[in-house]
């Protein structure tokens, strides 16, 4: 009888302890955040954190060693992470990790050569992984195995040069790949040819097929990153060389030009990243090399056109940034300042206020939140 009572008490205590731990790890205000870095100056690779969307506080959780993971992405269910290793030679790779979101830990599954040096972007639809290889000037496609690991490469698609800037557009450079909202198409920014390429996604096979009708941009644009609006009706492109944001209407795979607005008023030829607030009301774009900071635009809800409303200075070389899923914070990876700056975001005006809650680390260049591809 006494033994039974003791067993029941111990079981109750253990259950209470487990519930307490689970409650702590399931804080509704916290989201999982990953940061990719350049590893030439002491960084180990990818770092996982818990980011509190109400307070802006960050709790370090785990890390994994990988060379130069300058861009990464979650699978849709957050069970896997895919990261490129930006290398300027034939050793450039993409790596698959199993990810334990509860504990924030990684387990390497395997890696594959990208067959294009300096990969700089990676996406997945759960069936395949696609990389944009800047130095190689091509796009790589890898089918996924049942366990989330990478199969051997199934497609390699070359880009072209042809832009007027002979110092930066002499050789082919591919900078970004992005799925359409219905995942029927992939768009790639062809930096050196001032074009956006389209690929059709095969509905059953893990393959993509180039389409002949690319979208031509103004000569010397240097398209870098693109995004879709939350409602899927517009596409926005940040051009690194011209410092312009191009706006397109999207319909059945087609991009129809609407307008171009200035992000980089100093013409420093270093515009970098672009994101929309979760509600689609504001667009943000980073500029580097001079006057480093973020241009802020209000989005017209009727037609998606942009009106510039402000500019927020940042640390040095804001290569990448991201907005918390609830829209209350904007985090900027300032590579050369070795810091991630955390800005509070006014949901009504779109304005940014530096919280001073800097996360200091070596060469941060990519910020990703779980459930945010």
Give the beta-strand count: 30
Distance between the terminal alpha carbons, to the nearest Å?
Answer: 56 Å
Task: Report the major sheet.
Answer: 5 strands, antiparallel
Helix vs. strand class? mainly beta
DSSP summary: helix tally: 1
For the record, the CATH class of one domain is Mainly Beta
- Percent of residues in helices comes to under 10%
Which runs of at least 5 residues are low in confidence (pLDDT < 50)? Answer: 1-25
At the fold tier of CATH, the topology name of one domain is: Methylamine Dehydrogenase, Chain H
User: Under the CATH scheme, which architecture of one domain would be assigned?
Assistant: 7 Propeller
Give the DSSP E fraction (strand runs of 2 or more residues). over 45%
Calculate the mean pLDDT score and round it.
93
Any idea what the CATH superfamily of one domain is called? YVTN repeat-like/Quinoprotein amine dehydrogenase
Radius of gyration: 21 Å
Global shape: globular
Descriptive account of the structure:
This protein is globular. It has 373 residues and is mainly beta. Strands 12, 13, 14, 15 and 16 form a five-stranded antiparallel sheet that branches. Strands 25, 26, 27, 28 and 29 form a five-stranded antiparallel sheet that branches. The protein starts with a helix and ends with a strand. The chain has a domain of 259 residues: YVTN repeat-like/Quinoprotein amine dehydrogenase (Methylamine Dehydrogenase, Chain H, 7 Propeller), CATH 2.130.10.10. The longest helix has 24 residues. The protein is 6% helix and 49% strand. It has one helix and 30 strands.
